[in-house]
Amino acid sequence: MVLTRDGARATSNEQLATTMMNALLKVQNLRTYFFSKRSGRFIRAVDDVSFEMRPGETFGLVGESGSGKSVTALSVMGLVRDEPGVLAGRVLYQENGKSVNLLEGLPNYVKLEQRDAEVTRLSKDNTNWLKAHDVKMKPLRGRKFSMIFQNPKSSMNPYFTIGDQIIESVMWGCRKKREEAKKQAVDWLRRVYIDLPERRMQEYSFNLSGGMCQRAMIAMALACRPKLLIADEPTTGLDATIQSVIVDLLLELKRELKVAILLITHNIEVIGRLSDYIGVMYAGRIMESGPSDTVLKGRRTARNHPYTIGLLQSLPGEDQVKRGARLKAIAGDVPDVTDLPVGCKFYPRCALKTPRVDKKCKTQEPPVFKVGKGHTCRCWLYTTK
Ligand SMILES: Nc1ncnc2c1ncn2[C@@H]1O[C@H](COP(=O)(O)OP(=O)(O)O)[C@@H](O)[C@H]1O
Ligand SMILES: [Mg+2]
User: Fold this and answer.
1) How many domains in the chain?
2) CA distances from 192 to 14, 93, 216, 240, 250 (A)
3) 243 in a domain, yes or no?
4) pLDDT value at residue 304
């Protein structure tokens, strides 16, 4: 490790390659804050988030609304504009054996002082950071990384036809000439099961149904053959049958194209169907992460986080649906990210705290513990220390 003039860590390519092993993306200790003018405090939207993805794998990020899922994705894409924004961490990306830290140089733009997890001083030259970062990110966006969102109608340009938007995406992403790009665009629409693709090419997004528009958006995002697709609530807002069709389509494309997907949703059923690995987010942190079937056990004996257990218990079982029973919501409110408790952020809502750990939970934030193979959990319950 080399220390630069102002203490920023510089890592040699060799060191990066060892860290990356066979990963495509490795996010380490990412931290993204905003400033709340109303309360005069920082909104700690993403706080010390780490996860990794291998080529072709789907990593599902699940958690209640406001837990920091979208901000994590936007931070990876370099699309956080509001201040102070991304403050710390590394986003390592590897392709063809070459690794880069997409947040390299960030510490040169940020001065952050903390005492007991409380930020005491923070300043950031955001304008110059964004300029420098954009130089690195622009060639990647729409080529190596692409995104689909919850509301495809608002993310498609209403002034251009669906066809023109997909053609642009192919021309930029695959560096194709217009004629060739047009052929590929029609092909993509067919691949996402849009009938009469030549005719749909001429239409505008506002003329398509929500489900059809989401398919066109998926076609547009994949047409550039990205290595990483970020799907932020891709099925939210669509009705149940269409949701299921979109999940099937994503499953099929994931297998066929071997694209890595960062799937974000508050719908744990969607996560379960698509993800190989899952991260459960709460108050800007990943509370638990591991292989899907391990995380979705939802039991204390499987060393699942009390929050994960609560989320899974809130799902209606088959007979509950038949009987029309109400969902069992997790007691308590989604936390105020400008005013989080000192110890475990989930403490006020935790139904599993025991006298053995209670004091610790209240006063010390649990670090990331390894509790099984590829399985981590931020919970004092699963340590004997
Ligand atoms: N641009 C922004 N400015 C200020 N606060 C923001 C901004 N974007 C997100 N937040 C806040 O950050 C937290 C995490 O938001 P988000 O990542 O959108 O949650 P999720 O996607 O899990 O629902 C929330 O408290 C949200 O209000
Ligand atoms: Mg979101």
Assistant:
1) 1
2) 41, 28, 7, 18, 9
3) yes
4) 98
- The ligand 1 atom at the shortest distance from the C-alpha of residue 73 is 17
**By residue range, what is the domain housing residue 31?**
2-144+226-382
pTM of the model: 0.92
Asked whether residue 8 is domain-assigned, the answer is: yes
Protein residue with least CA distance to atom 11, ligand 1? 45
pLDDT digits (tens, 9 = 90+) for 138-158: 999 999 999 998 887 888 888
pLDDT digits (tens, 9 = 90+) for 245-295: 999 999 999 999 999 999 999 888 899 999 999 999 999 999 999 999 999
Centre of ligand 1 to C-alpha 86, Å, is 13
Beta bridge partners of 356: none
Q: What is the CATH number of the domain that holds 333?
A: 3.40.50.300
Confirm whether 198 is domain-assigned.
Answer: no
Choose the residue to mutate in 71, 147, 281, 339 for probing ligand 1, maximizing ligand atoms within 8 Å of C-beta. Answer: 71
- Report, as an integer, the average pLDDT of 107-112: 94
Within a 10 A sphere around the Cβ of 353, how many other Cβ atoms? 19
pLDDT of residue 383: 87
Inside any domain, residue 186: no
* All residues at 6 or more sequence positions from 204 whose CB lies less than 8 Å from its CB, including other chains: 158, 159, 160, 161, 162
Residue 273 three-state SS: helix
65 CA distance to ligand 1 centroid (A)?
9
